[in-house]
Design brief:
Layout: E1 30-34, E2 43-47, E3 76-78, H1 93-102, H2 104-107, E4 110-114, H3 116-121, E5 126-128, H4 135-140, H5 142-156, H6 161-165, E6 183-187, E7 189-190, E8 200-202, E9 207-208, E10 212-216, H7 220-226, H8 229-238, E11 240-242, E12 245-247, H9 250-254, H10 264-282, H11 289-292, H12 300-316, H13 325-353
Parallel strand pairs: 4-9
Antiparallel strand pairs: 1-2, 3-10, 4-5, 6-8, 6-10, 7-12, 11-12
């Protein structure tokens, strides 16, 4: 390379943490650099304690939790897992039209299917949802019969014993977790560049696969907190990563989110603000969530609705409307620490009241 020339490579973002050890007394204030954006300039702050998440917050680690912190929080689960080679779960709009034109028996089992890509980019995809289907239909429909046989062959050829076992019911997705009520669909992966996690509410007639997680019976209150600035900051801090994108987990991200106790007035106001976000989205029916939540293209009416929702959800934690992500996380980690200490303190009491197990 000739002297004075340089090459700029912007193919990847590298995360690096440098830890120093010293025998000297710990200083009262510790320098803590923060990057508001991955490729932006750093900002210097001063902390009294730096935890493993590089925050001035309690020294704790977020570990997997099988149930949400609050017992009245609706659980999050994975969507249904097809394991079908696409025979049941990957039907394009054109293929669906062909099925409707050539096989009316099969057509009655077509359902809209949503995975992460369909959710975020508003792509159209269908599946054949055959749970509870009439056995006569499965036998007499040429399309259903052929696709079911393909699923059986694929599962029988699998090296996994459980998948081989599930070849005995080839008309169904391998793992069925489809809600029977309205639900929130949350992508299991989302871009780090968004200010809010793109998610949506669907009716039970729309099927999801396991590229999304679902929260059945979810209230507008839950949706309000999940689609807030608070949850997005929490997600970016504690979730796993694929490249630089967040990997939203039910056991790590959602179950550990410290939902606050609310008054009736707070709940009503947050639900109204959450509905306003949905109404603002509804003004752009042809725009995908990827379009709506693009930082540079987010409609003003939607950003205003989110700002109103953020103000209410932040206030529920005692935070001002202009709270930084660092202050938000310090508050969330502090509340998480309090809640988990309470759970640990209650555990011995629960064990003492439990009846001895019969062996």
């Amino acid at each position: 390379m000739p002297l004075g020339e340089s090459v700029v490579l912007a193919k990847a973002a590298v995360h690096c943490v440098i830890i120093g050890f010293s025998s000297r007394p710990k200083p009262k204030k510790l320098p803590l650099w923060n990057y508001p954006t991955v490729k932006g300039d750093p900002e210097l702050g001063w902390a009294t304690q730096i935890n493993a998440y590089l925050l001035d917050a309690p020294d704790i680690l977020i570990t997997a939790r099988r149930k949400p912190l609050h017992p009245d929080t609706q659980p999050m689960d994975y969507g249904s897992k097809p394991t079908d080679g696409g025979s049941l779960s990957n039907i394009s709009a054109a293929e669906a039209d062909e099925i409707r034109a050539t096989d009316p028996v099969a057509a009655q089992y077509l359902r809209r299917l949503v995975g992460a890509r369909e959710l975020i980019h508003n792509e159209v995809r269908f599946c054949l949802w055959l749970v509870g289907a009439d056995p006569t239909d499965l036998r007499t429909s040429p399309i259903l019969s052929a696709r079911i046989k393909a699923v059986r062959a694929l599962r029988e050829a699998s090296p996994k014993k459980t998948t081989q076992r599930d070849a005995e019911r080839p008309a169904e997705f391998q793992e069925i977790r489809q809600p029977t009520t309205d639900y929130i669909a949350v992508p299991r992966h989302s871009s780090e560049d968004r200010d809010y996690v793109p998610m949506a509410r669907f009716g039970a007639n729309i099927v999801t696969n396991d590229a999304v997680s679902v929260i059945a019976d979810a209230t507008l209150t839950t949706f309000g907190f999940m689609t807030s600035k608070l949850f997005n900051a929490w997600n970016k801090a504690v979730s796993g990563r694929i490249k630089n994108d967040t990997r939203i987990s039910n056991t790590i991200t959602y179950n550990n989110f410290p939902f606050p106790a609310l008054t009736d007035e707070q709940r009503v106001n947050i639900e109204a603000a959450a509905q306003a976000v949905l109404d603002a989205r509804g003004l752009y029916p042809d725009s995908s969530l990827a379009d709506l939540y693009n930082r540079d293209g987010m409609p003003s009416v939607l950003r205003k609705a989110h700002s109103s929702l953020d103000k209410l959800t932040l206030a529920a934690f005692g935070l001002p409307a202009n709270a930084s992500d660092e202050r938000i996380l310090e508050t969330l980690f502090g509340l998480y620490s309090e809640l988990t200490r309470g759970l640990l303190a209650a555990e011995p009491a629960r064990r003492s009241k439990a009846r001895p197990r019969k062996i």
